[in-house]
């Protein structure tokens, strides 16, 4: 037992001092870049992500043009200093490409792409610091940046992860926890509880699944309130500036 | 400033039967939702009786995307078969980045379209008013100037001075009085 890592302490607190159902501290700010059409910066605990959205603009290559709707292009890059080990990662890293395609698939039905036929929407995501939950932070950052860009979408998309430690469902795993326990990432539309992404790469007992799922969904709702507050705050600022 | 009117995507705005969905909103089921962040506005549309249009708008406007409507563009280069233009304004709203469009020889004017010579209709640098006729091949929009009110609206002569239209296919330099050929737009 002593050799095994204890993820939950004797007081029922996790390694970073959180309770089971507690999210990491979340900080977000839309409109951080002036060059991009829309941008956002998000921190969830020690995971930090910068998102930039360009478009709708003319497609760069012929092959990407869709004649009835806009093409969504997602690129994710991990900063070389983002992890414990300093390492340059190429953009064609399989793991990163997989996350990018998950983000793309999440947003395709939500963004009203049919309004912008034959154009392209580019979403660039940069992970500045990595501490677990890459997929969820990418989706949350992209949502905020797309809203900031003024691209019509049906609803917010909020993503959150949950896992199971010692038969107990836990919310919002950090890197240490996600490498030792099964992790389930859920992205949903908070207003009508529709799920747009559900991802799990390890095994979880079916009896536990329901609880973990519910916990992740609750986390998404909490994230929604944080994002919504940030967006409203931002537009209030804009209105104040434009009314003067 | 009233902050109550600020809405965010996915926020319910009202019943679909009470309003017409304007820009920035969408209908799902029998309810109307917002699709962008902005101020909620209700305006009356008088054309089709008494209908209320609900729109959500904000300062940061989206760049326009060409659709089938009139637009303003600049001629980039000409070939014997077509003129390549970059689309700058779509329906009075400017595009942030230019889109490329093509005016083919047969789309320059409505009559005697087989006798059209591109170099007698447009020159590189001309500003023209045109219309999108189809969304063309994968890269270009096909445009047409085959209407009286469509064609060159601003051009410079070889001398570099502005020119004024003197007929529907001639323009005169204000400096040298030289006459050059263009397919002119009829002034409104």
Automatic annotation (TrEMBL), chain A:
Species whose genome carries this gene: Rhizophagus irregularis (strain DAOM 181602 / DAOM 197198 / MUCL 43194) (Arbuscular mycorrhizal fungus)
Assigned keywords, A-Z: Cytoplasm, Exosome, Ribonucleoprotein, Ribosomal protein
Oligomeric form and interacting partners: Component of the RNA exosome complex. Specifically part of the catalytically inactive RNA exosome core complex (Exo-9) which may associate with the catalytic subunits RRP6 and DIS3 in cytoplasmic- and nuclear-specific RNA exosome complex forms. Exo-9 is formed by a hexameric base ring of RNase PH domain-containing subunits and a cap ring consisting of CSL4, RRP4 and RRP40.
Subcellular location: Cytoplasm; Nucleus, Nucleolus
Pfam families linked: RNase_PH (PF01138), RNase_PH_C (PF03725)
A single GO molecular function term of this UniProt record: RNA binding
Family note: Belongs to the RNase PH family.
Keyword Mitochondrion: no
Entry GO CC: cytoplasmic exosome (RNase complex); nuclear exosome (RNase complex); nucleolus; ribosome
Protein name: Ribosomal RNA-processing protein 41
Biological-process GO terms, alphabetical: nuclear mRNA surveillance; poly(A)-dependent snoRNA 3'-end processing; rRNA catabolic process; U4 snRNA 3'-end processing
Matches recorded under InterPro entries: ExoRNase_PH_dom1 (IPR001247), ExoRNase_PH_dom2 (IPR015847), ExoRNase_PH_dom2_sf (IPR036345), PNPase/RNase_PH_dom_sf (IPR027408), Ribosomal_Su5_D2-typ_SF (IPR020568), RNase_PH (IPR050080)
Exoribonuclease phosphorolytic domain ranges (all copies): 22-152, 155-219
PANTHER family linked to this entry: EXOSOME COMPLEX COMPONENT, EXOSOME COMPLEX COMPONENT RRP41
This protein's record includes keyword Signal: no
TrEMBL record, chain B:
Entry keyword annotation includes Cytoplasm: yes
Family matches, as InterPro entries: Csl4, EXOSC1_C, Exosome_cplx_N_dom, NA-bd_OB-fold
Domain Exosome complex component N-terminal: 6-42
Alphabetical UniProt keywords: Cytoplasm, Exosome
Signal peptide (from-to): none
Biological process (GO), any one: RNA processing
Claim: Cytoplasm is one of the keywords in the record: yes
Exosome complex component CSL4 C-terminal domain: residues covered: 96-135
Gene3D superfamilies tied to this protein: 2.40.50.100, Nucleic acid-binding proteins (2.40.50.140)
GO MF annotations, alphabetized: RNA binding
GO cellular component: cytoplasm; nuclear exosome (RNase complex); nucleolus
Localization terms from the record: Nucleus, Nucleolus
Name the UniProt record assigns to this protein: S1 motif domain-containing protein
Species this protein is from: Rhizophagus irregularis (strain DAOM 181602 / DAOM 197198 / MUCL 43194)
């Amino acid at each position: 037992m002593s050799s095994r890592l204890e993820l939950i302490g004797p007081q029922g607190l996790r390694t970073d001092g959180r309770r089971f159902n507690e999210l990491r501290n979340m900080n977000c700010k839309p409109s951080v870049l002036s060059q991009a059409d829309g941008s956002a910066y998000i921190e969830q605990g020690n995971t930090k992500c910068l998102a930039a959205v360009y478009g709708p603009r003319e497609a760069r290559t012929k092959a990407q043009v869709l004649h009835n709707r806009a093409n969504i292009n997602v690129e994710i890059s991990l900063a070389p200093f983002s992890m414990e080990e300093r390492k340059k990662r190429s953009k064609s890293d399989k793991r990163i490409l997989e996350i990018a395609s998950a983000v793309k698939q999440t947003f395709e039905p939500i963004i009203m792409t049919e309004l912008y036929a034959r154009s392209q929407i580019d979403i660039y995501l940069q992970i500045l610091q990595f501490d677990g939950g890459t997929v969820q932070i990418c989706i949350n950052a992209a949502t905020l940046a797309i809203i900031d860009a003024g691209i019509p979408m049906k609803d917010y998309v909020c993503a959150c992860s949950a896992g199971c430690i010692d038969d107990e469902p836990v919310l919002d795993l950090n890197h240490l926890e996600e490498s030792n326990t099964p992790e389930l990432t859920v992205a949903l539309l908070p207003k009508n509880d529709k799920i747009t992404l559900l991802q799990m790469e390890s095994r979880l007992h079916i009896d536990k699944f329901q609880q973990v799922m519910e916990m992740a969904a609750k986390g998404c709702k909490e994230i929604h309130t944080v994002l919504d507050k940030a967006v409203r705050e931002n537009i209030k600022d804009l209105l104040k500036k434009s009314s003067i | 400033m009233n902050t109550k009117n600020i809405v965010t995507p996915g926020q319910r705005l009202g019943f679909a039967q009470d309003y017409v969905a304007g820009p920035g909103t969408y209908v799902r089921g029998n309810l109307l939702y917002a699709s962008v962040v902005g101020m909620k506005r209700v305006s009356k549309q008088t054309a089709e009786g008494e209908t209320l249009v609900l729109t959500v708008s904000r300062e940061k406007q989206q760049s326009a995307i060409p659709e089938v409507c009139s637009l303003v563009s600049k001629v980039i280069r000409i070939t014997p078969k077509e003129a390549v233009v970059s689309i700058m304004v779509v329906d009075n709203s400017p595009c942030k980045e230019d889109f490329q469009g093509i005016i083919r020889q047969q789309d320059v004017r409505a009559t005697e379209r087989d006798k059209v010579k591109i170099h007698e209709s447009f020159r590189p640098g001309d500003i023209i008013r045109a219309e999108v006729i189809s969304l063309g091949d994968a890269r270009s929009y096909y445009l047409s100037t085959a209407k009286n009110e469509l064609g060159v609206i601003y051009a410079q002569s070889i001398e570099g001075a502005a020119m004024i239209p003197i007929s529907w296919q001639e323009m005169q330099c204000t400096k040298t009085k030289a006459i050059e050929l263009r397919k002119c737009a009829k002034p409104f």
